[in-house]
Amino acid sequence: MNVGQQTTRRLAAKSGQSICRSCRDSISRNYASAAAAAVQSEDQAPQHIPPVAQAAPSTAYAVNAGVVLSRPPQITRDLHPFEAAFFLYQKRLNERLALPFTRYFYFKKRTPADLEWKRKMRQRLTPARDIGRYNGYNSEAWNDEVLVGAKESDVQWQVDRLLEDAATDGREAGESEDKGMKKVERELFDKPMPRRTEADEKNDTKSLNRALQRTLYLLVKNKEGQWQFPQDRLKDENLHGAASRIITQAGGPNMNTWLVGHVPIGHHQIEYTKTTKLPSGLTEYGAKTFFLKARIMAGQVNLKENKLGHKDFKWLAKDELQKVVEEPYWKSVKNMLAER
Fold it and tell me: Fold for domain 60-76+196-334?
C-alpha cells in the first residue's frame, strides 16, 4: 500500500463516512503526484556558483612556420659487397637450374649470328653475359660462388660486360673475318650515365644533380649568418598557407613544389636572451617554429628577388646538414630527416 492509499484511509476514518473506490484512487494519485513534484523541485533548486575570473596571459612566444623542402633520391643505393656477391650467386644458380639454351631456335645454322654466338660461348661458357666465365652443366657447376670483393660481383664490371657483348662480335685480337659472310648489323645503344655526376666531382652543393642516392634538403643562410630551413613568422594565416608563401618568397617562383600535408612534422623552440614587449602588453620570451614537409619536383632556388633576407643556399644531405647548423637546432630537426 502506497502513501496515497494510506492517507485516503486515514481521511475516511476521521470523517466516519465511507468513500467510493473511484474517489479514493483519485485522491491517491493526486497526492502522489504532488509529493513527486515537491521532491523534484528540491533536487533542481539552483545552486549559486560564484564566477571565477581568468587571468589574462602575460607571456607569449612568436609562432613561425618552417619548410623542410627536399629532393628525394633519384637512383637506388650502391650495393654492399655481400649483397653484390649474393646476387651474383643467385644468377649463377639460375643458370644451373634453367633448361639449356636452345640456340637453333634463335640462330640459323652457319649464319653470321650463329658463328658469333659460338665464339662468345667459347669465351664465357654460358648464355648469361654478366656472370663471368661459368658453366652450369659440367662437373664444376657446383662451384658457383665468388669471394666478397671479386670483380665479377661488381655492378660496374657487369655493366661493362653487357656493353662489350653488344658492341663486339666475339673475335679475338688478330682473328680474321669469315670470308663470304655478311656482317651482323648492330643496333645503336646508349651507354648508361655514371652514378657519380660532375656536380659530385666538384662538390657543388648548390646543384640538385648530385648525391643522387641521397635525400637533399634546402638550407638557407639568414640575416644573422645562421644556416636553417626557410622560415618566417605567421601573418594572419595558417601553417599551410604560410609554408606556401615562404617557399615562393624564399626560393622564387621558378620551383615546382608540393606541400605534403597540413600537419607539422616537428618543431624548434628558442628562448630570447632579451625579452620583447609587444604592443598588446604581452612579453615575448622566445619563438616556436613548426616545420611542414615539402618536395621539389623541378626548378631551382633563385635568391635574386628574395623577400626574407636570405644570403645563400645549399642542398645538403642529412650528415652534411649536421656540420653546418647549430647543435640545438640539429637536435630539434634530426629526427625529421631521412637517413638516405
Answer: Nucleoside Triphosphate Pyrophosphohydrolase (3.90.79)
